[in-house]
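$ fold --in a.seq
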Amino acid sequence: MVLSTRSAFFGGFVLWAAPALTWQALSLIGVGSWTSVVPLAGFLFAPLLLVFALFASAFRALPKARAAATKTTSAALGLFAGICFALVMSATWYTTAIELATHRAQPLVEAIERYERENGRPPPALNVLVPQYLDRIPRRIPPFELEVTLDYPPNEWILKSNEVGLVQGLDELFYLPHGNYEDFAWSGSIQRLGAWAYLRD
């Protein structure tokens, strides 16, 4: 029973952790979703699994159901452990994935700045940069939009994507050419990522 209980725990752990971390790892190479669904799903399932584990453990008092209840409880606890492990790892991996994306997006920033120097104004949209300033919009980055605005002086434009974070539209990854992020009041907390900033709403 000891081996089968351990196997049930390990099976539950792998059942969640393996696909969750595989999904999150795809964002490291820029081919996965930029919306991190792993933590959100974990937060939803973790309390339910604890309740289920407690419910299953109650049947251990019944002789005929003891073995099945023990393994079921172990599997539920394994799933819970897998969720906790995936939550910790996916948070670290996601931050790294976003940092890598900012490096891949650097040619886009340089093309915007070159256009601005040569034309005296920022481009009206990203697609006008191709093919004179860029062969193509960089791949393996979140979908960015260029906003020409005077809301963040002395910056005349902001490059941003709101297709990041737990839920699309809440968090934002963005770039200000002057890098003066601390000069403005934001709706959430700001994390600097080199010359970029990540807004957690």
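$ fold --in b.seq
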Amino acid sequence: MKPVNLSASRTWSVHSRLAFEEDLDALLRSVGLRPTRQRMALGWLLFGKGNRHTTAEVLHLEAIEVGLRVSLATVYTTLNQFMDAGILRQLAFNGKLFFDTNTSTHYHFFIEGENVLIDIANDDLALGKIPTPPEGYEITRI
């Protein structure tokens, strides 16, 4: 089996990497998932960058870039297991599925043409008030 270079996805000190691995292991176990090699590797790529929005295809490419030999089907299976366990949300925008590591209640801007999601700060959202779009963008529909 080929070694996986997960350090390429983020700069980590040895201590912080070990702490993250322990946290990820504990997170998976706490939701009833066995921390298999593939779940740990994909979880590292997914959760190791903080709150983010990604697609299965992008996560699959990231996995390949760090030397993880995993099929796109396995990526989807793992993402679905994470969703079923409640540690990941699935969002659909313009017919495209995104996965959100922030499972709290929150809303998003969808940047058309770029297929990018940006969280809307909860304090920037009020009934009767349209949230301020990110700099350089305008709201085309709600």
